[in-house]
Design a protein that fits this description.
By secondary structure, this protein is an alpha+beta fold. It contains five helices and four strands; from the N terminus they run βαββαβααα. It has a four-stranded antiparallel β-sheet with strand order 2-3-1-4, sandwiched between helices.
């Protein structure tokens, strides 16, 4: 649309079903490249992507032509299909229902990207659940702890 200007940055976080450590170091870079392609094909800009065997963090320059839930459905649905088609895990791979989507400002790009890139360092000190709750609190998102990262079947 003419004369429409946006600058929106999102930090996206989502976990493997049941937070099982299924993402293997042997193929995680290929997975990240595949997800990067999904983000770019949806006309967003990937800033950083990294994670641990049981979850992923993605920073994107977000374009509001697509709803956030639709972007996450595309990323999660297509990447799980890719993992299953390549038979990278024993059994069926799926992502956990839900996600975290946190906005950040242009001045925070470097800090958020560094945080994402240094996931291994962060998780020497805290679990994914501790990290996720910390993010919710940092971004002042109201939540009920009994529902945090619960699987929806």
């Amino acid at each position: 649309m003419a004369n429409t200007f946006t600058q929106i940055y999102l930090h996206l976080v989502f976990a493997v079903q049941n937070r099982v450590s299924l993402i293997q170091s042997e193929w995680k870079d290929e997975l990240y490249k595949y997800i990067t392609g999904i983000v770019k094909n949806n006309k967003h800009k990937l800033i950083a992507i990294n994670g641990m065997p049981n979850h992923i963090h993605i920073a994107v320059g977000y374009k509001p032509h697509q709803l956030i839930p639709d972007l996450l459905q595309d990323i999660k649905g297509n990447s799980s299909k890719w993992i299953n088609e390549k038979k990278l895990v024993y059994g069926k791979f799926s992502w956990q229902a839900g996600y975290g989507a946190f906005s950040f400002s242009h001045s925070q790009i470097d800090a958020v990207a560094k945080y994402i890139i240094n996931q291994e360092k962060h998780h020497k000190r805290k679990t994914f659940q501790e990290e996720y709750i910390e993010l919710l609190e940092k971004y002042n998102v109201q939540f009920n702890e009994k529902y945090i990262l619960k699987d929806i079947t």
